[in-house]
Description:
Layout: H1 6-19, H2 26-47, H3 51-60, H4 66-72, H5 92-102, H6 105-114, H7 129-132, H8 136-141, H9 152-165, H10 174-190
Helix pairs in contact: 1-2, 1-5, 2-5, 2-6, 5-9
Amino acid sequence: MPADLSPLIAATTQWLIRAYPSGGGPLSSALAEAQARQAVTVAAWLRYPTPMDIELVNVTGPGGSARLDWLAGAEAPGPYGTDDAWRTWVDEVVASWAVCLLSAPELATTAVASLADSWHLHGTPVEFRRLTEPDENDRRAAALLRHPDLHASVAELHRRQLLDHLDLDPAPGQEQEQEQGREQERGQLIQGSEPPSG
Length: 198
């Protein structure tokens, strides 16, 4: 059986569009989902660049959405039930990288360019225009998905790892903002709102 990231990509896309819904009609929802799926696909291909990487994550599992649910204020009630089984296939790092890409088209363009020689693209022409060059309809449909303030806590989980992967340096002042975010999270922990372990 060929290595396949489909369950991980589908589940992580589902988490994003539930956590940051379009709020519009069917067309807006479809546009938002298309952008989320493109971002998740790029992030997943960056994180799992070879068939061996994919086989390993399919055996060990990507970790699930527990900490993401807590950060986004959308924690699933109790243990995962049958209807929530898809959440076990959510990849926290992929979700974090995806929202980084959605909130910065220039970064998304760099990420897509880095995949030019990727094994994932061998014999498979793929375009990510809605991710890298969103038009006004795309931006309107994915306003929450693309708003950096709304998903900052998720993005900052693994932003530095993404930048390192792409050989990029943080923007001026970004490291200070990241530290402020970590301080805020520590403050929440002190108040007794402890997140699930990641």
